[in-house]
Amino acid sequence: MRSISILVLIVLALSSTWTRDITINQQWKLWKNQFNKSYTNVEERLRRTIWGKNLEIVEEHNRQADLGLHTYRLGMNQFADLTNKEFVKLFKGFHSKDIRKENQTFVVNPNIELPDTVDWRDKHAVVPVKNQGQCGSSWAYSAVGSIEGAYAIKTSKLVSLSEQQLVDCSTKQGNMGCNGGLMTQSFEYLKETGGIESEDTYPYKDREETCTFNTSKVVVKVCGFVNISSGNEDA
Predict the structure, then answer these.
(1) pTM (2 decimals)?
(2) SS3 letters across 50-74
(3) Longest CA span, the chain
(4) Are 235 and 106 in contact (CB under 8 A)?
(5) What is the helix, strand, coil percentage profile of the chain, to 5?
(6) C-beta of residue 138 within 8 angstroms of C-beta of residue 91
(7) Is residue 231 left, alpha or beta, with left meaning phi > 0 and alpha meaning psi from -120 to 50?
(8) Distance CA 129, CA 77 (A)
(9) 10-residue block means of pLDDT along the chain (235 residues)?
(10) Sign of the dihedral defined by the CA atoms of residues 83, 84, 85, 91, in that order
């Protein structure tokens, strides 16, 4: 009788594992369809393994969140088939150690009284979320985002500007397209070249291409810029 009980427990355990494997495989197929993913046979095995490990991390975190140990939940987005090292290599294109020191630093005006908080979305100074794709162009998005916000605050006109122009055209100033760059070098380029086009006239391509900047399509010009000291809450 004891042997039968042990056998039943083993069968139940195997059945549970088999059922979970089917469920995870179904999730994998749904996830691939959702984000339009396709791989070669060899690559699929690798990506499926990485995706499975990330799924375990997400599920464990969410179990802890249900117990009140976290204030947020995680989900499986389009980057779930990448390792952390791969993600950082692809998307961390900002070269902080190379920031030039000769630029002016912002000086706080002590006579201006500022609110405790501000949400620039409420003031229509932030465009909808963009996606840099698999190109290390975060530096271009940072530069463009600051210009979009400054222009909107100044003119009350919110315009989505071209990151692709910076990716393609600012190598002379030291930027390296999808391999990284700096916001300061981007501003220098825009000062020298005469301005930046909109996203509509120079759309993002998720890769480096030949520069096709057209001065007649400039919508915003950059006259100057200053650095903000790291950690300065007053700035």
Answers:
(1) 0.69
(2) HHHHHHHHHHHHHHHHHCCCCCCCC
(3) 88
(4) yes
(5) 50, 5, 50
(6) yes
(7) left
(8) 15
(9) 52 48 85 92 93 95 95 93 86 56 68 87 94 89 96 96 97 92 94 96 95 97 86 70
(10) positive
* Residue ranges in the chain assigned as alpha helix (H): 2-34, 41-66, 84-91, 138-155, 163-169, 183-193
| Integer angstrom CA distances of residue 101 from 7, 96, 184, 226, 227 | 72, 12, 10, 11, 9
- Burial of 134 by CB count in 10 Å (0-12 exposed, 13-18 middle, 19+ buried)? middle
Phi-psi region of 174 (alpha: psi -120 to 50; beta: other; left: phi over 0): left
Which domains can be identified in the chain, with CATH numbers?
1-82 (1.10.287.2250), 120-220 (3.90.70.10)
Rounded Cα–Cα distance for residues 132 and 141 (Å): 8
Comparing CA positions, the residue from 171, 174, 163 lying closest to residue 204 is 163
Distance of CA 235 to the CA centre of its chain: 24
